[in-house]
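Protein data:
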Amino acid sequence: MRLTKDDERARRICSLAIEFMNARAPIASSALAARYYPELSADSFRRAFSRDRALLAACGVRVVERGRQAGETSWGVDERGSFAGGAELGAREAAALELTCQGVLEDPTFPLAGDLRLALAKLSRAFADEPAFAAARRNEGRALGELRRALVEHLCVEASYTNARGWQARRTLAPYGLFALGGSTYLVAARVTDGAADGPARTYRVDRFDEVVALDDVPCEVPDDFSVLDWVRLPFQLGSKARPAAFAVPDGREGALADAARGQGELRREGKALVWEVDVCDLPAAASWAVAQGIRPLRPQALVDAWREVLEGALPHGA
């Protein structure tokens, strides 16, 4: 799932609200900058945090200065000026707030969804009624819950995993991030040896974890250049062996294809034709995806044959 800047800002505002509402002491500017604005300079952090405080205030969480500690400003919630102690919103305000937060509440890769719902329940009883997706999340199992806790607390995990071939292995992993694709949730993680990441990261399908235990005494350090967006694949790119493929893109379809491709592959001209080149693992899935997107495979021949089978299967019998 590719996040927009608005999505990222919404996540940051939710995380800041939860952080301040649960804080038992003022939070220093340096801690906020390191945790929520790690890529910004000091001046850019001050401007961004000022804008975010205005948004937090609009959401009912007023953050104010709480003095200086070790030469820097600390921040805390103004309880009198905020919606604290279960202040109740009207039905229209609660509906607007739920609609605004729905994306992150339903996102299986957002580890603080449960905490966010508890915080929202303080604002309106409407959030105390558990919807279907929240019940489903509760039933996802302890494995995903432990992975979320490990990601939030930057911990490694001890995990038992069964791969697609049915082979089971137990190993220590450093979790870097989660993403959702095709109705499943995937973990990006590196194997850990002697307390340190050993080798490149890879993806694991979360529902194949038999057991996950967060290791409170083994910290996990996510690489500075890691972005889970770099790991998000298309449905036909899940598999162990990839091969290059090419598709002909009709005129006028390049914009829709670019949106659907999530940054995967490359568009280029071959004579007068527009061709999209991308790696493919699952030929039948790629053929079905091509039909849905209105593009035609050019190579390899096995993909072209699979595409024709999809088209023939969609035709009425006797046509």
In short: The mean pLDDT is 82. The longest strand covers residues 168-181. The radius of gyration is 24 Å.
